[in-house]
Design a protein that fits this description.
The protein has 100 residues and is of the alpha+beta class. It is built from 4 helices and 3 strands.
């Protein structure tokens, strides 16, 4: 497993492009911190923090991008709807990944 610093840089880069363009276009932002166990903690900022579509963005774009990163074993969002609800959203988009 790569070092935490390297994993955090890779996770941050994974959100560049499509994900950041989407959230910034809606007046928000997104950040990620991967802990030593490989758990990525995502925070939406600005207007995206309270957006009712944030779970869809999380399940269809953010989580799949982060789970592709070597060293990331799970992805959660601060202030999120239940993990069960996010899993249902992922299933709607046929996204595979961590089901915790």
């Amino acid at each position: 497993m790569p070092g935490r610093k390297k994993t955090n840089r890779a996770a941050d880069r994974a959100l560049d492009g499509k994900v950041r363009q989407l959230v910034e276009a809606h007046g928000g932002g997104v950040s990620v911190d991967v802990d030593a166990d490989g758990d990525a903690h995502v925070t939406f900022h600005g207007r995206c923090a309270a957006c009712p579509s944030a779970p869809v963005t999380m399940g269809s774009l953010v989580r799949p991008a982060l789970l592709k990163i070597d060293g990331v074993r799970s992805v959660s969002r601060d202030g999120a709807v239940s993990r069960y609800a996010e899993a249902r959203i992922e299933a709607m988009f046929r996204v595979t990944g961590d089901a915790r």
